[in-house]
Design brief:
The protein is mostly beta strands and 259 residues long. Helix content is 12%, strand content 38%. The strands form 4 sheets. The chain has a 5-stranded antiparallel β-sheet with strand order 2-3-4-5-14, with no helix packed on it. A 5-stranded antiparallel β-sheet has the order 6-7-8-9-13, with no helix packed on it. The protein has a 3-stranded antiparallel β-sheet with strand order 10-11-12, with no helix packed on it. About 21% of the residues have low confidence.
Length: 259
């Protein structure tokens, strides 16, 4: 009897093992792989893939044989970039306001230099409601004293529309510029011309044409502490515009430092 039970037990064990293996094979996700991967099933044909957008990174250098500095950067409404600063390579004198426009991939579209025979600098740049640009900085070429607040307005293509200088007999700087809800401009900076001590915060409100109430009288109770100069120029007031031919990439060379 015992001799009969041993083969029967072995047969039952083998049968149970086979049943367990079959159950595993039926439930295992890897036992019956699909003929196509999920990626292959959902990918569109190669000719319908979306076009690639702007590069996620770039590194550029723009300038000439002298010294150029970028001081203010914005992203523009077309997805590109605009920079304001200073150049000694291009322009009329020892330093000019330097404005650079790049497209979304960092390609140079245009550069402009604005200023006079002395040092001029752009410190703050905005894109205006008309698609143009406004820059606030300092000028030594124009105005009432050593340094004056310098405001420059360009159209969307970088053409000079007007410049204004605001300040007094010693030193005044424009460091930050905004466009206000009435279409005008407000500038914050520093003054040594109208200070209570060594230096004071200087705040100036301009209308949409760059005119200011402080141009009326330095002794008035409202808007006192500044004179507004509008020097005559064939292109704009209070400055000259340098734009060598060709207009694209004028006033600078573009060097790509990495892919």
């Amino acid at each position: 009897m015992k001799n009969l039970l041993k083969p029967l037990s072995l047969a039952l064990f083998v049968a149970a093992t086979l049943l367990m293996q079959n159950a595993c094979n039926r439930t295992s996700p890897s036992s019956n792989p699909p003929t196509q991967s999920a990626h292959t099933q959902t990918s569109p044909p190669s000719d319908t893939l979306p076009a690639t957008g702007p590069s996620p990174y770039f590194c550029k250098a723009i300038g000439g044989p002298g010294a150029e500095m970028g001081r203010s950067l914005i992203q523009t409404s077309d997805g590109g970039y605009a920079i304001a600063g200073t150049t000694t390579s291009f322009g009329a004198g020892g330093g000019e306001v330097y404005v650079v426009k790049l497209d979304a991939n960092g390609n140079l579209q245009w550069t402009k230099t604005i200023g006079g025979p002395e040092h001029d600098r752009g410190s703050s740049l905005i894109q205006t409601s008309d698609g143009g640009y406004a820059i606030a900085g300092i000028t030594e070429s124009f105005g009432a004293g050593e340094w004056d607040v310098y405001v420059v307005k360009l159209d969307a293509n970088g053409n000079l529309q007007w410049t204004k200088t605001i300040g007094g007999p010693e030193y005044d700087w424009g460091n930050s510029l905004i466009q206000t809800s009435d279409g005008g401009y407000a500038i914050a900076g520093t003054t040594a011309s109208f200070d209570a001590g060594d230096l004071d915060v200087y705040v100036v409100k301009l209308d949409k044409n760059g005119d200011a109430c402080c141009a009326v009288s330095q002794t008035s109770q409202v808007g006192s502490g500044g004179t507004l100069s509008s020097a005559t120029s064939s292109i704009g007031s209070g400055g000259t515009l340098s734009s060598p031919i060709p207009s694209t990439s004028s006033g600078g060379t573009l060097t790509t430092l990495c892919p």
